[in-house]
Amino acid sequence: MRRAVALAARGLGFTRPNPVVGCVILDASGLFAGEGFHQRAGGPHAEIHALRAAGERARGGTAYVTLEPCAHTGRTGPCAQALIDAGVARVVYAVADPTPQAGGGAATLRTAGITVEAGLLAEEAEAGNTAWLTSVRRGRPHVLWKYAATLDGRIAAADSTSRWITSAEARADVHRLRAEADAVVVGSGTARADDPHLAVRGVEGAVQPLRVVVDTEATAVRPGARVLDDAAPTLIAVAEDADAGHLKDVVRLPRAARGLDVPALLAALYERGVRSVLLEGGPALAGSFVAAGAVDKVVGYLAPVLLGAGPAALSGAGITTIAEALRLRMTESVRIGADLRVTAIPVPVTSVVPVTPVTKER
Fold first, then answer.
1. CA gap 190, 213 in Å, rounded
2. Which DSSP helix (H) or strand (E) runs through 214?
3. Do you find a cis peptide bond into 164, omega within 30 degrees of 0?
4. Which of 47, 68, 124, 280 is catalytic?
5. What span, in angstroms and rounded, lies between the C-alpha atoms of 244 and 242?
6. Sheet strands side by side (includes 234-239)
7. Is 296 exposed, middle or buried (0-12, 13-18, 19+ CB in 10 A)?
8. Catalytic: 56?
């Protein structure tokens, strides 16, 4: 199963709006027979690739799959039936399929007399497929907020210069994150200050993500902006009443107290097949997402640099006291070049220990 999880990861960035799935098949004697992973939406699922590789050796064997085999016919046929037709005797899957149209594969397999086991390495498989699972369960794209900062939390100096806080290795790693995302989102402040390109560079075979600029008043993205070239598709999100006649590929959204309505933006992206978002915007846009409860993972690149002044990584998140702090659980810390990459996920509110304010005696 761990091999199947590793195989599934090869599909990151290529399967939108489908999940990433890996499959390994052992023959009746327990020897390796075949493997595969879902490579692109509309193409064969992981089980089909593995069954083709195994051939007749799949009969009487065991299939290890990271996600419950599907039981419906979409652009491809049901994998549960393919496993039945191949004569597989046992199926072990890690995570149940939460979609009503594709779920039920386990029941179909059991009805056919196949032994089915669930939950093996479920945590590892879920972590590898977290973007798709989040999108299904919440009905919106999974959001990963990425930022780069100094050790004292500054994303730029007092004079607004910021190139380069982090190392070349860290910047290359960000392109890996872009390659794994369906959309990259920035705000008007970043568009004005940096004229970002937002396309993936240096990742062989990468499918370019949708470039999204949240430009409420339709004044930040002007003709000739790098994000408007043909390197990748681009969508400009503007307010419903904004004068955006000079822009193409625009989505109009309702206003919020600050900027645009974040849930409406995510809903619009979901309708376009986006299941994972890499949020690369500045502190204000990040604050809007945090305030909306729409950040599912945080990746911070921390450079061994001190500035002492300049903008912080996050602002306007609606947090006014320590008791309201968004608590995170760190899942990884790794050195990237000279920098430290820290990955964390929000802690469920029910598991946060309340903080009692301390009153000093006078």
1. 9
2. strand 210-214
3. yes
4. 47
5. 6
6. 250-253, 234-239, 210-214, 183-187, 276-279, 142-150, 297-303, 339-346, 328-336
7. buried
8. no
Residue 115, amino acid = T
Please say whether the beta carbons of 278 and 147 come within 8 A.
Answer: no
What is the rounded distance in angstroms from the CA atom of residue 206 to the CA atom of residue 184?
A: 14
26, 32, 134, 340 from 90: Cα distances, Å: 10, 14, 28, 43
Exposed, middle or buried: residue 289 (CB in 10 Å: 0-12, 13-18, 19+)? buried
End-to-end CA distance of the chain: 62
pLDDT tens digits for the chain (362 residues)?
A: 999 999 999 999 899 899 999 999 999 999 999 999 999 988 999 999 999 999 999 999 999 999 999 987 777 779 999 999 999 999 999 999 998 766 689 999 999 999 999 999 999 999 999 999 999 999 999 999 999 999 999 999 998 888 889 999 999 999 999 999 999 999 999 999 889 999 999 998 899 999 999 999 999 999 999 999 999 999 999 999 999 989 989 999 999 988 999 999 999 999 999 999 999 989 999 999 999 999 999 999 999 999 999 999 999 889 999 999 999 999 999 999 999 999 999 998 654 444 444 433 33
Q: Which helix (H) or strand (E) holds 136?
A: helix 130-138
To the question of pTM greater than 0.85 for the whole model, the response is yes
β-pairing, 339-346 with 234-239?
unpaired
Give the residues across from 250 on adjacent strands.
236
Question: Residue 259: CB partners within 8 Å, gap ≥ 6?
Answer: 187, 214, 216, 284, 285, 288
For 64, the token pair is 């290890």
Rounded to the nearest 10°, the torsion over CA 134, 136, 139, 145 is 20
HEC assignment per residue over 294-312: CCCEEEEEEECCCCCCCCE
